[in-house]
Amino acid sequence: MTTPELTELRLERKRRVLVCEFADGESFELDCEYLRTHSPSAEVRGHGLSEPKLLTGKQDVNIEAIEPIGTYAVTLRFDDGHSTGIYSWDFLYRLGRDMQANKARYRQRLVEAGLLER
Q1: What CA dihedral angle connects 66, 13, 63 and 29, to 10 degrees?
Q2: pLDDT mean over 29-58
Q3: Between helices 89-97 and 99-112, what is the axis angle to 10°?
Q4: pLDDT digit string (tens) for 71-95?
Q5: Distance of alpha carbon 21 from alpha carbon 66, whole angstroms
């Protein structure tokens, strides 16, 4: 599947949400905590990990800046100092498409680690 073209990328800083709209009509509101805990960076993804590293304490993180990388991606600079990882349009689309499952798995991992009650 070819990822549809990104038609709009808008940060709603007060809501801590990055809105991604695509040419196929899909629109995703990706909250900053989700974007940070599921970053494509080596810090979060490691090298060959099947799941992202379990990051905690990112509920209040926000995006300070969005830096374009060509016409295919951006780097997000978060207010906790994190600024690595390339968020391609394909990666953002998959994050949006799979958000419910990704968030459910993240919550399950927090419970398994004893960091969140069921």
Answers
A1: -80
A2: 91
A3: 70
A4: 999 999 999 999 999 999 999 999 9
A5: 16
Secondary structure class of 83 (helix, strand, coil): coil
Least Cα distance to 93 among 7, 13, 11, 14 occurs for 7
SS3 64: strand
Residue of 37, 39, 27 whose CA lies nearest to 88 = 39
Distance of CA 91 to the CA centre of its chain: 8
Instruction: List C-alpha distances in Å: 8 to 14, 22, 26, 51, 101.
Output: 18, 7, 11, 28, 24
List the domains of the chain with CATH numbers.
Answer: 6-112 (3.30.2020.30)
